[in-house]
Amino acid sequence: MSRGRPRRLLLRAVVAAAVVLVLVIVGVVTWANIVMAGDRSAALLAWRNPAVSISSTDHSIVMAPATGATGTGLVFIPGAKVDPCAYLYKLSGIVEKGTTVVITKPTLNLAFFDQRPLDTFTADAPAVTRWFVGGHSLGGVRACMLADSPRVAGLVLFGSYCANDLSASSLAVLSIGGSRDGLSTPDKIESSSALLPADATFVEIAGANHARFGDYGTQPGDGTATISSSKARAEITAALAAFLE
Q1: Strands (E), the chain
Q2: Do residues 71 and 136 share a domain?
Q3: Is 4 in the same domain as 91?
Q4: pLDDT for the residue 19
Q5: Is 82 helix (H, G, I), strand (E, B) or coil?
Q6: Are 133 and 146 spatial neighbours (Cβ–Cβ below 8 Å)?
Q7: What confidence tens digit (pLDDT) does each residue in 102-131 have?
Q8: Which of 172, 167, 169 is nearest to 157 (CA)?
Q9: How many domains does the chain have?
């Protein structure tokens, strides 16, 4: 065997491994960028709401009260591969009551890939003096990880639960679940409740499934909602208003 042959074989192996790696990266990026699009008609209800002012940056969507801002803000992280605009309608109710909401645009549409600090998003609403952090589904898991910031007064979970232990913290926590949620089921939320402070508030919306926390259509593995989007919005708003006040 010539001396050059092992080198050629090694080179081919390295090239093949590099090609596979590139294909995997391209596949992951392509998959991550296929998002569950927000319902246009629901989003337009928020955009046309005279009580809500909406602006967009390269990393967030900012929803501010047109009048009567309370100084309270919520940084909200979308669920995995869900269009941030899918939450405009559901969150506009609490904005009407004076809370500023900053919806993040996660890296590659997946909260776990987004390692930017909370300050990246709170800087978009400098007038806010009291911050909460929250999210839907995987976004809620990421919110739990950001909740230990000294700037955070509380945590809000939509169809979600924590993977890290916050039970010894002094955080105020609101967990809103849906009785028809097929992904973050009531049983899963209950079984992970020990990771939250003992005085955490739990609200279950009868008839709501996982996708009812936003407006983006159906989701594989989810249950079937028996409550309308507008009714779910009203109940989400009422729970948030009571908690944030």
Answers
A1: 52-56, 60-65, 72-77, 100-104, 130-136, 152-158, 172-178, 201-205
A2: yes
A3: no
A4: 43
A5: strand
A6: yes
A7: 999 999 879 888 889 999 999 999 999 999
A8: 172
A9: 2
